[in-house]
Amino acid sequence: MEQLFDDGWKFHKGDIKGAEKSSFKDLKWRTIDLPHDWSIEALPNQKPDEVVGPFDKSSIGTTATAYTIGGTSWYRKTFTLDSNANYTNTIINFDGVYMNSEVWINGKKVGVHPYGYSAFHYDITKFLKPAGEKNVIAVKVRNEGKNSRWYSGSGIYRHVHLIRTQPIHIAHNGVYVTTENIIDDMAVIKVASTLDNQSKMSANVKLSMTICSPTDEVVQTVETPIKNVAKGSSEFVQTITIARPALWSLETPNLYKIKVTVWVNGKETDNVTTTFGIRTIEFNAQEGFLLNGVSVLLKGGCLHHDNGFLGSATIDRAEERKVELLKAYGYNAVRTAHNPPSQQFLDACDRVGIVVIDELFDMWQRKKNPHDYHLYFDEWWPSDLASIVMRDRNHPSVIIWSIGNEINERVAPSGHALRKLLVAEVKKFDTSRPVSEGICTFWDHPNTDWAVTAEAFAALDVACYNYNWRQYNADHAAFPERVMLSTETYPNEAYDNWNQIANNPWVVGEFVWTGMDHLGENGVGNASWIGGTSKQGKGNAQFGGGMLRTWPWFVNNSGDIDLCGFKKPQMYYKDVVWGDSKLEMAVHEPAPEEGARERVSYWGWPQEHQSWSWNGHEGKVLDVRVFSSYPVVRLELNGKVIGEQVAGHSVKHIATFKVPYEAGVLRAVALENGIVVASKEFKTVGKPTKVKLTVDRAQIRNDRNDLAYVTVEVVDCQGNLIPSANIPIKLSVSGAGEIAGSGNSCPNDQESFNSPICKSYCGKALIILRPLMNKSTGTITLMAEAEGLTAGKLEVTVK
Prior knowledge:
- Helix content is 12%, strand content 40%.
- It contains 9 helices and 49 strands.
- α1 (316-328) packs parallel to α2 (343-352) and α3 runs parallel beside α4.
- The protein is globular and about 90 Å long.
- The two termini are 26 Å apart.
């Protein structure tokens, strides 16, 4: 029996003596439910330009972790086990705690776990009191020192489950399903079940398996008697055929369920239900990546694990929405950078139809930060690797295991030795997927020749290149059987990367850095103005360059999708490059002063907008870029032709025009053989008149893991978005829910982050509604008010 163990925890921020003892008084501690991230919560002693919301200028993580605060904190929960003689063992499973957790039951230490991203569990049977008596679990979490290159969050940020078993049961993560073959209209799957016999003697056992189709129809049942199952762990393998299988694919992500039941002496002692997909994967240099025998080009993005205004808290709907957005915007693949994701994220990828590179580690023995995982790697990597692979191996969405990213020792003798060990260890638990590693050029080891990567790539099944598409052709000539993949790419090299993928079968896809904005790595995707004719322009901080941005920046800003989930300008270009659109347009914002020029970081994008509303800049010449796969495009302003240019592959799908601004209609027209085949237009909008609210779902469950996402827009009298509206909006909520998070997509507007007064940015903001802890049903009423505008009001039903 497995139950969610998230409700009713007590939380204390800060270290405190004696909190591990069951007699400790925690009545004054705050009551919370999990998942929980304390680093996203507003700090005390707010002070302008020093402490704003959760951001503290003195943070030890500074730009890497978005100026947030870690530290040490405690969690406690009092619980009573039901009286049930059938259950003899109790396991507690944590899907993720950041980081360095220590667990006590009734004052006795159970264990420690350093890694912040791997699931772990303890058998706590011997620490528990008899059924009906109160038990206390205490968890200490230490997120201290400089230990991360991005926002990690702090605390028990993923789900916790309590699992109770009888003496003979299925081991934790003990069911492993693989597709062995698909022939004609028949699929052959293999089910490996690991039994734990914790009784004192061997026993005769029967395993029964029931497989249900994606429509919940029983399609196969199998019973297997097993004699003399010895004490300890034993694996039993069953081969099963399924007629007329509904295959899992990107277009039709069909999911089956298998229920494995253990019977001892005619009595059921355990059952586990596992979701899986029937599909085959293959990588080769002649055909690329094959899913069910069909070639697929991977349109991917790298993704960190945080959920924006919710921090790193793994709320199920937040994970699901993130995946839905990626799919809606054209992605079919994700690389989890640079750590394993949550169970709920992979569940969503399974359901929605997105494939995943599941990445295990960001460093091995050599550090990237003084207090990161390198301190624990040698002792902990085998158990962490096993935990990750065993938890995630049934997900059809997972197609590659990545054992590392830009590892410092990647071509050192120690790195080669470790790589072989890691690859072999992965394949102890799963042989159905290739193993890879993200390898980059040698910025950290100057004057090292790229050719020395040959030994590293030889140990891997797929060669993952970071920012290095220019090596593909030479490497293919030298290693014609090598399968290549861009695991990190620059946004402004979208065409070059995709051109390699579309024309070379041995290059199977790209993963841009990044698919979606995340907290931390502040401003790595920046664009800024430098120079200028005025003295102010030359000395003002806003005109600087560089890789990162300091206070008050808190977002990386390199994503194709912003922190709110809205498309950013580079995504419109990528739509054309990927073939998801044939015609798009963008207008560059005016320079702040004469003579200023723009400098864009490798991960940034020019300061463009999908707008023709530039009040106050009449007559100023603006750059307009038309993105098109058509051969010729024409630009018109208020019916007058501005010009006509070649588009398509010869200019990497970009035609640029100079246009003096005047209000009205800007129209891009695509021509093929002189005939108009498509058009795109921007209209100058009116004055702001009201606040418009739109919710993604008008009804949600009375479950803390469900959310409603509300888009806030400042619009004119015709409902057109006002892209220049950056105005304060007062938020209020009543009824059966609360505001779990709010803000805009501006990468340095700290004051609007989870604040009751949120400023719109480019006319938009986002509000996240969540049901109350008391699980009440009813209506959530949200109000959004701005001075001089008609207020927005919206209701969400909680059932």
